[in-house]
Amino acid sequence: MFFAYMFVDVMSPLQELLEVRLGWSPTAFGNYAGAEYMLNVFGFLIVAGIILDKMGVRFTGTLSASLMVGGAVIKLYAISPLFVGTAFDGWLSSWWTAMPGSAKLAALGFMIFGCGCEMAGITVSKAIARWFDGKEMALAMGCEMALARLGVFAVFSLSPRLSQALGGDPSVVVPVAFCTVLLLIGLICFIVFTVMDRTLDRQTGVGSGETSSEEEFKLSDVGGLFRSRLFWIIALLCVLYYSAIFPFQRFGTNMLQCNLGISAETAADLLRWFPIGALMLTPPLGYCLDKFGRGATMLILGSLLLIGCHLVFALLLPAVPSQILALVTILVLGVSFALVPAALWPSVPKVMDKRYLGSAYSLIFWVQNIGLFGVPILFGNVLAASNAGVTDPMEYDYTNPMLMFAGFGVLALIFALWLKILDTRKHYGLEAPNIASDTAVEAAEAESAEE
């Protein structure tokens, strides 16, 4: 997941370079960014959840890593001199002229990569939920998410510098090629893990993460999830919150350039601190959630911080163009990004049957992907409409797009409050700790012994 998150945002600090070198407009960049989620939106992610519940963690993990590598190679080819200027490029550029041929092919590769990335996400979530059931599940998920966030920090630090690593004119190819090689290394490592894990299974006679007969999954379970009010509250909270986070990472570098009048490298250096708050706080927040609970309250607080940060970016930063203000706001947004995921994902096993937990995660990710597919496209169009006649990518006005993000935060807050109210009435355990107290464990063991 570390390498996957690096690849997701490898071109985010390079938006200005893509516009200058390859002729991508803000709309084209938004369409490319949204393409990561397109195939998932149109049903692949639902199929991925069924594959996970049917085939198990090892098979699904290998498949997801392979898809990520394949998509990365296509995207790398699309922006390289091997493709740009060819007859194929000319044909792709001849229709839907708002999207250059390189943007179309890069978007296709990003679609395939996105299928693998989201499949890997639900695979990791189900594996952790299974292995840490009744233990430090939130801490384990927090550590996994923290490592992934470190990938975002790393790529915002490296990408602008790698683009100039060969000297001469800056290049988009070098950072993308670097991250593609990292994905290939990740695939090889997972294949080695799979072989070793199977060997251990044969030696011990114990299954490891594969679907057991007592966890038989039925397709009818998917329909039950769609009829669950609680599922939709969690899913809509998820999509609204993340729609104000991940698209922000795509456009945030250029937003800082425009508001502060700084270079892409300096803007990326500021934005790279966004995941650091999440990286540092997610594991300890997960530990506190395991020990003390208060998951629903964390969702509310995280949504409030999200709203405040995007209002600062929309209204205050253009009026007070201070790098210190920008950095503080970015760090606070990182705190929000620690609070919500740390509480959201460990809450799902509390309210969903473990038999179809993989499908529950996949359907929540599917709803999330609908937003993450549409919002970058919407953002690009709002940005273009707000800057009609502006040709210099350093002169864009980001007020309206950032207000849109703040609006998503308000809606996420409403669903977080609704979830807390339901938990108070129905006692789902969202405010309860994940680790049962010693007294509760002893009582459960005594009851089991009596039976």
From TrEMBL:
Catalytic activity: L-arginyl-glycine(out) = L-arginyl-glycine(in); L-aspartyl-L-lysine(out) = L-aspartyl-L-lysine(in); L-alpha-aminoacyl-L-lysine(out) = L-alpha-aminoacyl-L-lysine(in); L-histidyl-L-alpha-amino acid(out) = L-histidyl-L-alpha-amino acid(in)
Domain Major facilitator superfamily (MFS) profile: 1-424
Keyword Nucleotide-binding: no
UniProt cross-references to InterPro entries, sorted A to Z: MFS, MFS_dom, MFS_trans_sf, MFSD1
Membrane spanning stretches: 32-52, 64-85, 105-125, 137-160, 172-193, 230-250, 270-289, 296-317, 323-344, 356-379, 399-419
Cellular compartments annotated: Lysosome membrane
Main localization of the protein described in the UniProt heading: membrane
Molecular function via GO: transmembrane transporter activity
Highest taxon of source: Bacteria
PROSITE patterns: MFS (PS50850)
Keyword annotations of the record: Lysosome, Membrane, Transmembrane, Transmembrane helix, Transport
Any one of the GO CC terms: lysosomal membrane
Membrane topology: Multi-pass membrane protein
One Pfam short name: MFS_1
Its biological purpose: Lysosomal dipeptide uniporter that selectively exports lysine, arginine or histidine-containing dipeptides with a net positive charge from the lysosome lumen into the cytosol. Could play a role in a specific type of protein O-glycosylation indirectly regulating macrophages migration and tissue invasion. Also essential for liver homeostasis.
Similarity remark: Belongs to the major facilitator superfamily.
Quaternary context: Homodimer. Interacts with lysosomal protein GLMP (via lumenal domain); the interaction starts while both proteins are still in the endoplasmic reticulum and is required for stabilization of MFSD1 in lysosomes but has no direct effect on its targeting to lysosomes or transporter activity.
The protein's name: Lysosomal dipeptide transporter MFSD1
